[in-house]
Design goal:
Structural class: alpha/beta
Number of strands: 9
Subunit structure: Homodimer.
Helix content: 25-40%
Largest sheet: 6 strands, parallel
Number of helices: 10
Bound molecules: adenosine-5'-triphosphate, pantoate, beta-alanine
Shape: globular
Pathway: Cofactor biosynthesis; (R)-pantothenate biosynthesis; (R)-pantothenate from (R)-pantoate and beta-alanine: step 1/1
Radius of gyration: 19 Å
Enzyme class: ligase
Distance between the termini: 39 Å
Order of helices and strands: EHEHEHEHHHEHEHHHEEE
Pfam families: Pantoate_ligase (PF02569)
Strand order of the largest sheet: 1-4-3-2-5-6
GO molecular function: ATP binding; pantoate-beta-alanine ligase activity
Length: about 280
């Protein structure tokens, strides 16, 4: 696997691949790679001739009191994992290359990004849509792979791609879970064993809500009330939101539309912010 640490080297490679008619799949990540990321890389390898993984902890998507500085970083381990999973190139730009002094251009999606994460992390999606657009411009991928764990992120990026006519196919990969059902996440590394037990209540709650829907419950209010009740049993958990939403627009639904409704959950497990979701 080749490592590229400058924008110009990545642009030169993108130009060569394009000229040679090779298809390119981009897997954007913030590093601290786990099996969920590796599943995205493996999926990418089935979708294009060449797989590029970007590793960049993007400062603009973190709020002022968030975990940018303590976000887990393990570049050496990440490169070995990328190579094992079948990546051909790792793009590892520096913060200064992507945001030099005086940087002032942002991409803002103003509808899908507003609810849920947009309420509690107001500048988050502006940072995500900006960095993802920049990565698309630099790497010029044929397709890009994103995880369903970050369901609103996928919906926002799809909207940006449509609205800005970006020539990139967005591919969504299913959420990879641990044995206890917890969605793999770099932030799980922050959890103590006791907090981890509490975190396992999140997927259990998603399963309970899915079974209520399977038995015929359609009222969003009933489903979110049950989910709130189940999660509130854990003193380590503080609910940020629980909502039944349209998976494309992220607008709240009062009634579940089977196959077209998403239960989206965000909680604090003490100091650790976790999100998860289930298609209903
Ligand atoms: N468990 C998972 N299953 C599938 N995809 C995942 C999973 N976790 C992360 N991803 C995807 O990997 C990509 C990079 O995510 P990121 O580097 O933020 O990892 P993360 O584990 O989600 O970290 P964080 O703790 O910041 O949420 C995103 O498209 C994200 O949706
Ligand atoms: C898409 C992304 C890599 C942009 O920084 C990030 O939001 C993430 O890891 O999901
Ligand atoms: N996976 C989303 C990255 C973030 O929480 O900033």
């Amino acid at each position: 696997m080749q490592t590229l640490d400058s924008v110009s080297a990545m642009q030169a490679l993108a130009g060569e691949l394009r000229a040679a008619g090779r298809t390119v799949a981009l897997v954007p990540t913030m590093g601290a790679l786990h099996e969920g990321h590796l599943d995205l890389i493996r999926l990418a390898a089935t979708r294009a001739d060449v797989v590029v993984v970007s590793i960049f902890v993007n400062p603009t998507q973190f709020g002022p009191n968030e975990d940018y500085t303590r976000y887990p970083r393990d570049l050496e381990g990440d490169l070995a994992k990328c190579a094992d999973a079948g990546a051909h190139h790792a793009f590892i730009p520096t913060k200064d290359a992507l945001y030099p002094p005086g940087y002032s251009t942002y991409v803002n999606e103003e509808s899908v990004a507003k609810p849920l994460e947009g309420v509690s992390r107001p500048a988050h999606f502006r940072g995500v849509t900006t960095i993802v657009t920049k990565l698309f411009n630099i790497v010029q991928p044929t397709c890009a792979i994103f995880g369903q764990k970050d369901a609103q992120q996928v919906a926002v990026i799809r909207k940006v791609v449509t609205d800005l006519h970006l020539p990139v196919e967005i591919v969504t990969a299913p959420t990879t879970r641990d044995d206890d059902g917890v969605a793999l996440s770099s932030r799980n590394a922050y959890l103590t064993p006791l907090q981890r037990t509490a975190a396992a209540a999140i997927p259990q709650t998603l399963e309970t809500v899915k079974s209520m829907v399977a038995k015929g419950e359609r009222r969003a209010e009933r489903l979110t009330a049950e989910a709130t009740h189940l999660l509130s049993q854990f003193r380590q958990i503080r609910i940020i939101y629980i909502a039944v939403v349209d998976p494309l627009t992220m607008q709240t639904q009062r009634e579940v539309v089977p196959g077209n409704s998403l239960l989206a959950v965000a909680v604090w497990v003490e100091e650790t912010r976790l999100i998860d979701n289930a298609l209903l």
